[in-house]
Amino acid sequence: MQMKRSSRTALLFLIPFLVVIFLFSLFIYYSVSSYSENYLFKLLEARANKVARENIDAKSLSKNLLMDNEATEKLPHEKDFFIPINDKLDIKAEAKKVGISQRFFSDAVKNGSAEFVTKQYLYKGIRYKSKAGDFIVITAAENYFEINQAKNLINTLLFAMGIASLILLYIAFYFSKNIFKPISAITEKVKEISSENLHLRLNENNTNDELNQLTMTFNNMLDRIETSFETQNNFISNASHELRTPLTAIIGETDVVLSKPRQAEDYIESLKIILQEAEKLDNKTKALLFLAQTGFNGKVQKFDKVRIDQLLWDVKENLESMNSKNKIYLDMELLPENPMKLKVNGNTQLLHLAFSNIISNGCKYSDFNTVTVSIGASDDFVYIVINDSGIGIPEDEIQYIYDPFFRASNTKNYEGYGIGLPLTRNILRMHNGKIFVNSVQEQGTTVQITIPTWKPEAV
């Protein structure tokens, strides 16, 4: 069974704390043990010197002496050994007699002191010089910490670790549950949202914490999904209408022609109408295919340095030659002194098509009044502003202008497919450009286009 995230988080908090507590407990145990052992060795050294003065300097010893010191300051279970250092010293025999290692005697003779630890006793040996000669004085006492305190300290530390673990476990689960509580609420709310109720949103608050940012991000994503759904629905509706219109005309004309025998001239006239409608249908499907191709990066376009002012002059000449009613004014007052700032990294044919769409729309929807095209540039961008005094776009319909086949409600008297603007936006996106449309109905439309200037590293 998979563990819940809140339980895993609680354990992730708990395990490091337990490891730290365990290590801290080990540190306490060995610190106390080391301190106790060092303190007892100092007492043993002091006792060794004292019993040496009392037993060796007070009387001469002529042979190895083992005796119990009856002084009142004796340590618990204290044993004292006085071993003369002379030619008769048998370290192996003395070590066996005392019950410690031979190395202890060697260190005491060589270094002046030595220490030895067993589970029951601590041994401290010193080399003592007196008028009677040199002696190894060994004082041993009960390993008081190991026998009397170690077990109690271990039990105390284990008890403290157990209590701390229970407290930490409760705190970890309490906080993990409260931390994930808002996330659980978000999850439950998200489960309620489907394609049938995309208008629902998560509850936001005024804080700037991560959860509120997550909520805001999710709501923004829902906004985009809802817009995408609406765009898709509008596209299907508009495309169906635009594609059905010429098909209806073709079918209707064909039915009329076939309803009875006619003269050859009538057939020719009907075939011309059918051909005209079929060409419209072909143009719309080609435009739709081109729009799809520019909507993704599947088709690689060749990019090169393109000088925008020259391109716009070509667009002006082309549009005016296609229709003598088109009036286009190129405003060059804001041209930069450095012509390099007018160059962009782009595809000439695609940019020509994009600007032609915008400018020809301006001419068409302004009833062929003059359309002004202004050019400016900074170090990083080329700016093109296209302004017309046409019919404008209703305010409540501007949000749909990039939907394929969408046509504003006030364009019924003008020919068009509703493909040009979304196609232009796709082309500008391919050039990392941006397009902004501001329009006031019956006053005109202003289109601002921004394209990054050509940089050597962009090639």
TrEMBL record:
PROSITE patterns: HAMP, HIS_KIN. It catalyses: ATP + protein L-histidine = ADP + protein N-phospho-L-histidine. This is histidine kinase. It is found in: Cell membrane. The lineage of its organism: Bacteria, Pseudomonadati, Bacteroidota, Flavobacteriia, Flavobacteriales. Gene3D superfamilies: 1.10.287.130, 6.10.340.10, Histidine kinase-like ATPase, C-terminal domain (3.30.565.10). Pfam families: HAMP, HATPase_c, HisKA. It is a multi-pass membrane protein.
